[in-house]
Design brief:
9 strands, globular, about 25% strand, single chain, nine-stranded mixed beta sheet, 7 helices, alpha/beta
């Protein structure tokens, strides 16, 4: 891991950009007044829009978490942002746009092509980032995962024992194969669902929640579209991570 930039935000949060091989990422750690090192960490998942586009939302989540005493980190997903283009993923995105613009149903084949290779590649990268981040003296664990792509969160919850709790965002397409993996998830879950999300099949999200094997799982559904998540939903997620990471 190589840190490439560093800045102190106005609330004291330290923001450091890094690279891990070809993978860019960002680490946020609380100011000295907020927490004493080492601190627990939350991995911030996000859609495949690129870190530059997602930065305003990510830094807001990071600052909110820092106020609760958590470090947070994120990485650029494969085929996104400034990372090399990925022809098959680009084709799947184009196919998705085509059927959605035509008002046609999204086929299982398109969903699988869009999501499954991304999960297969992104999850080992998240694990490599976790190895590097946990080697830092200011990061002590335990670790949570928060956000989407929800299938990436599912796979991480199954294969990565260092992640002890997850806050998942319903709102991305879910391959049928991920339902079987969801049944293997046993860590505590906090699932956020926007009831009127125009790009999300609500029934699929409900069926996925039902499939999760966790004994402790809660579904938090709010009215509104994909970007209409209310502020208090973030407060509830913070309380969830405080219970399980501290």
């Amino acid at each position: 891991m190589h840190f490439t930039s560093e800045q102190r935000l106005d609330d004291g949060v330290l923001e450091r950009e890094f690279t891990l091989g070809e993978i860019p990422g960002i680490l946020w750690t609380p100011g000295a007044a907020s927490a004493s090192a080492p601190v627990p960490m939350i991995l911030l998942g996000h859609p495949t829009l690129g870190l530059a586009k997602m930065y305003p939302r990510l830094v807001a989540r990071a600052r909110h978490s820092a106020a609760q005493g958590f470090a947070t980190a994120t990485i650029e997903l494969p085929g996104s942002g400034d990372r090399p283009s990925w022809a098959s993923l680009d084709q799947a995105r184009a196919d998705l746009r085509r059927v959605m613009q035509a008002g046609e149903p999204v086929s299982d084949e398109i969903v699988d092509a869009l999501i499954l290779p991304l999960v297969d590649k992104a999850v080992p990268e998240w694990q490599a980032a976790l190895d590097a981040l946990l080697s830092l003296p200011e990061i002590g664990g335990p670790v949570g995962y928060s956000g989407g792509v929800i299938s990436i969160g599912i796979r991480l919850a199954v294969v990565e024992p260092r992640i002890v709790a997850a806050g998942l965002f319903a709102g991305s397409l879910v391959p049928r194969a991920m339902f079987e993996e969801a049944r293997q998830v046993t860590i505590p879950l906090h699932v956020l669902l926007q009831w009127d999300d125009e790009g999300n099949d609500r029934q699929t999200a409900l069926d996925l929640f039902d499939a999760f094997g966790s004994k402790e799982k809660s579904l938090h559904a709010n009215m509104g579209g994909h970007t209409g998540v209310p502020q208090f939903a973030g407060d509830a997620a913070a309380q969830f991570f405080t219970r399980h990471l501290k």
